[in-house]
Design brief:
By secondary structure, this protein is of the alpha+beta class. The relative contact order is 0.20. It has 5 helices and 10 strands. Mean pLDDT is 86; it is low at 1-23 and 190-195.
Length: 195
Amino acid sequence: MRLHCMLACLLLSAGTAMAAAPADTAVEAHGPADGNAPAWSISTAAPMGWTRDCCTYASAIGVNYVLYQGEWTGKPDRVMVLNVWPSKLDSLDAELQDDRKHYLQIDPAGKVNAFPVQNGHMPCQGVLYSGTDHVDDVVVFCDPGKAAGIRYSWSMTLSAADPMRKPLLDEFKQVVEHSSYAKYVPAANVASKPH
């Protein structure tokens, strides 16, 4: 996922200011049906003070949702990124191993460590990549189940020397652990259904 985020974030070179996040911290990302996967919704809560974006910057860099602090810079540092895709690999572990393989192809001397998380809604597995460039990437893969037809990940890039590293990783972990999946039914469809 690091490669995907790095490439996507490079697409947006100019930073612009965005209004501060409202007091409400609810996050809800939606996606359309895709093949056998029905339309989906991923929900969580943003940390206080983080800006939530589904449709401006997230869309511009080709991801489903981003959470960030301060002004948008177009750089991946300290940005929480949600990616959702139709599940094709056999298991969550296979997703993790595939990502690990791609990471080590780019940085063969990079270190790979487990990043433990506990999501009460579904199985999730995390990994912390420590690059030789002194940049770390934390990625957590989650599997809402076969009926969902999707898998998703939350990821974030941090400098290894970031003085806020621990609180940032704690906030990232909270976002992941509070994430839940639901089949998405647009409000218009709900309203049109007979009672």
